[in-house]
Amino acid sequence: MVGRLSSSGFAGKDRSEPIEPIDRVFGWPNSEEYGLIQPQINSDGIHVWPFNSVLPVDLRFLNSDGRNTVPKNRHDYFELFILCRGATTFLVQDRLLPMHEGDLAIIGSTLYHSIESPPNLRTTLGTLYFDPDLIRSDGCANSADYLAPFLQQDLAFPHILSADTGVPGQIFDLMRMIRGELPGSSLRGRLAIKTYLKMILMLLVNQYSAYAGTIEALRRQQRAQERLHNFFEYLPTHIGETIQVSDAARLCGLSESDFAFFFRQVTGRSFKSYLNQCRVEHAQVALAGTNQAISDIAQDVGFCDQSYFSVVFHKLVGMTPAVYRRRHQSGADHPDKR
pTM of whole model > 0.70? Predict the structure, then answer.
């Protein structure tokens, strides 16, 4: 990547050989950045990535010719990308961070950002997107520690890792391994993807351990998690009940404003967004594993209105509950009950 890409990862700076198109070398999806990203940014400047419903992880190459710049946006998922070819500037809030070939950038969910490439210079990014709940929900007590470099991004955070550190090359190799396992339709495939993703996150945790704000920020994160413990313990067994922010705040002994602050700090998303995601995940299990009527499933996971349930489900999963059931009960005679 520093110079040219080889099929095994990063190569040296020898440019004497022609560079093959990256998508041919690696077989990843290849998209024009502006045409893909711009239509998915809503009126609040939030980008929603259309993750595969099986596993919320995606990798692809994004190309830009510098003529169109995606406006600054933020997103609930976490992102890292490597500059494979060309030159670009990473815009984070009001900061301008130049990137060189082989450099890696990471961004969490709270900061508005974009990239800006010189006009008429072809730029290619190798990108990895993932929903942090994939790591948070794996049942391990210290899962959030893997996400520390994404959660502790203050206004002075060093988002760029130079190719010279060697870390971007190691991460790119792991990205290739993840891509080889997608879409992760088998239990083994999902386990492999999570393992490779955790290896990437561990590399980042080690790299950012020297960052002055990380240790104290992680402690703040842990204290915030402790404040919300009662709610996270309560939610799984009460998912079908009406739960307002005021109810959750009362469970934790906090004011609504304090609860909202700590909740965003821990999860990187709003209370409503998180609650809907949890409810839809419970619904996915019921749709795939039972013949229960869709209207009953909607009620069971806390949606009083089936139409609204279908709208939220489609937004998060990318298909209707009925289509999801058909796809995940294929090969069996399971009617779409409503």
Answer: no
